[in-house]
C-alpha cells in the first residue's frame, strides 16, 4: 500500500508539473504590460489616426497622384495596416493573459495568422516604398535621365507590394494553430511551426537567404547609401548655388527643407530597423543562446522594441512632413481650417493664414533680350500664370530678383543647357520659354 501511494503521488506530482508548464496562464510582467499594452497601443492608435488623416489630405489633391508624393500616399496606407495589426497582435495578446479572458483568446487565435502575415507584408512594403522614393529623389538631383521612375510610379508601387507578398505571404502557412493537449480556457490552443516550413531547402534557401536578405538587409543598405548620397549631392548643389547672385534665400531654404525631410524619413526607418538587424544577426549566429535563462528576458524586450520602434517610425511621418515640407503643411492646415474647424463652428486661426499657404517658386523667363529672374508667390493648388502676365485683378504678383550681371550669367548657362540637352528632364517649358528649375 505504501508503494502504491508513493506511485500515485508521483503521478499526480508529474501531472501537476505538466499542467503548470503547459496549461497555466503566465501573466505578463508589469513593465512589459506598460510598454506594449499601454504605450505601444497608444502610439499605434495615434499612427492609425495620423496616417489616415495624411492619406485623406494627399488623396484629395489630384496632382499628388502624378508626383513623387504618391509614394507618401501609399506609404501612409501601409502604415495604417501595420499599426492596426500591431494593436490586434501584441496588446491584445497581453490583455488576454492578464485578464485571463477566454473571449479575447478565442478572437486572437482566430486572426493571429492573417494579422502576422499582413503586418509583415506591409512592413516590407513600406521599406520598399521608402527606397523607391529615395531612389527617385537621388536620380533627380543627380541629373540622371530616368523617365521610367517618373512616369511609372504606380507600377513601381504595385511591384513593391508584389515583392513583399512573395517574400512574406507564405508566413500564413508557416504557422499552425492546434489544440494544446488537454488544456482548457485561455491556453486551449497553441501555435506550432508547420512541417514544410522546417523542411529543406525552404528553410535555408527561402526563409534565410531570400526573405531576410530581400526584406531586411537590402532595404536597410539601400536607404543608408541613398541617404548619404543625397546629402552629398545637395551639399554640392548648395555650394554651387552660392556662386550665383540669383541664389535666393528661398532657394536655399527649399534645398534645406527637402534635405531635412528625406533625411528624417530615411533616418527614422534606419533607426527603427537597426535593432531588428542586430537581433536577426544574433539569431543567425547563435539562436540557442537567446533562449537561455539569462538572455531570454533581453531577447523578449528586444523583440518588443523592434515592433514598437516600427510603429513609432510610422507615427512620426506626419510630424516630419509638417515640419519639413511647406506644401504638405499648407494643405494639412487648410484641410483642418476648411473641414474640421468649420464643422465645429470654430473660427480658423488667421494670424498666419495669409502667408502660410504661399510657397515661393523661382522662375527664369526669356524676355527676348535675355533671361530675367522672378520670385513668384503662389498657392499650392492654383495654376501659375506667366511671370510677366497680370492676374485677373490686373496686378502683377511677380518681382524681379536678378540684376544685369545675373542676366548675362543665366543666359550663358541656359544656352549651354539647351545645346547639350543633358538636363532636359529638369526643365518644364511654359509661356515664352519660361523654365521651372526649382521645385519644392
UniProtKB/TrEMBL annotation:
GO terms for molecular function: G protein-coupled receptor activity. Keywords: Membrane, Transmembrane, Transmembrane helix. It comes from Caenorhabditis remanei. This is G-protein coupled receptors family 1 profile domain-containing protein. It is found in: Membrane. CDD domains: 7tmA_FMRFamide_R-like. The chain crosses the membrane at residues 34-57, 69-90, 110-133, 154-173, 208-228, 260-285. Residues 50-321 form the G-protein coupled receptors family 1 profile domain. The keyword Lipid biosynthesis does not apply.
Amino acid at each position: 500500500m505504501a508503494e502504491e501511494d508513493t506511485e500515485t503521488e508521483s503521478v499526480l506530482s508529474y501531472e501537476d508539473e505538466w499542467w503548470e508548464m503547459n496549461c497555466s496562464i503566465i501573466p505578463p510582467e508589469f513593465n512589459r504590460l506598460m510598454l506594449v499594452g499601454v504605450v505601444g497601443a497608444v502610439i499605434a492608435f495615434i499612427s492609425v489616426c495620423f496616417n489616415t488623416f495624411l492619406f485623406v489630405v494627399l488623396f484629395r489633391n489630384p496632382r499628388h497622384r502624378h508626383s513623387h508624393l504618391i509614394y507618401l500616399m501609399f506609404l501612409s496606407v501601409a502604415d495604417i495596416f501595420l499599426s492596426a495589426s500591431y494593436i490586434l497582435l501584441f496588446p491584445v495578446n497581453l490583455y488576454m493573459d492578464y485578464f485571463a479572458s477566454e473571449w479575447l483568446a478565442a478572437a486572437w487565435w482566430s486572426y493571429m495568422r492573417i494579422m502576422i502575415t499582413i503586418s509583415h507584408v506591409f512592413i516590407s512594403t513600406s521599406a520598399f516604398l521608402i527606397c523607391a522614393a529615395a531612389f527617385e529623389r537621388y536620380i533627380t538631383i543627380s541629373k540622371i535621365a530616368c523617365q521610367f521612375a517618373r512616369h511609372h510610379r504606380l507600377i513601381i508601387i504595385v511591384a513593391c507590394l508584389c515583392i513583399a507578398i512573395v517574400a512574406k505571404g507564405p508566413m500564413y502557412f508557416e504557422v499552425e494553430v492546434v489544440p494544446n493537449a488537454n488544456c482548457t480556457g485561455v491556453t486551449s490552443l497553441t501555435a506550432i511551426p508547420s512541417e514544410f516550413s522546417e523542411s529543406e531547402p525552404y528553410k535555408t534557401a527561402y526563409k534565410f537567404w531570400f526573405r531576410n536578405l530581400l526584406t531586411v538587409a537590402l532595404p536597410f543598405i539601400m536607404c543608408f547609401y541613398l541617404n548619404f548620397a543625397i546629402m552629398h549631392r545637395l551639399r554640392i548643389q548648395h555650394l554651387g548655388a552660392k556662386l550665383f547672385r540669383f541664389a535666393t534665400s528661398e532657394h536655399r531654404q527649399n534645398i534645406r527643407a527637402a534635405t531635412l525631410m528625406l533625411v528624417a524619413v530615411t533616418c527614422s526607418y534606419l533607426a527603427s530597423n537597426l535593432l531588428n538587424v542586430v537581433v536577426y544577426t544574433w539569431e543567425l549566429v547563435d539562436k540557442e543562446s537567446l533562449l537561455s535563462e539569462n538572455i531570454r528576458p533581453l531577447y523578449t524586450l528586444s523583440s518588443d522594441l523592434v515592433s514598437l520602434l516600427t510603429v513609432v517610425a510610422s507615427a512620426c511621418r506626419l510630424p516630419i512632413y509638417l515640419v519639413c515640407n511647406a506644401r504638405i503643411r499648407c494643405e494639412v492646415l487648410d484641410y483642418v481650417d476648411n473641414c474640421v474647424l468649420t464643422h465645429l463652428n470654430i473660427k480658423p486661426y488667421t494670424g498666419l493664414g495669409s502667408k502660410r499657404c504661399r510657397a515661393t517658386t523661382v522662375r527664369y523667363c526669356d524676355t527676348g533680350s535675355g533671361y530675367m529672374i522672378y520670385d513668384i508667390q503662389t498657392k499650392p493648388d492654383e495654376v501659375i500664370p506667366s511671370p510677366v502676365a497680370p492676374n485677373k485683378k490686373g496686378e502683377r504678383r511677380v518681382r524681379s530678383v536678378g540684376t544685369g550681371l545675373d542676366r548675362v550669367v543665366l543666359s550663358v548657362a541656359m544656352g549651354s543647357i539647351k545645346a547639350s540637352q543633358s538636363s532636359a528632364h529638369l526643365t518644364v517649358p511654359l509661356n515664352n520659354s519660361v523654365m521651372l528649375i526649382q521645385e519644392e
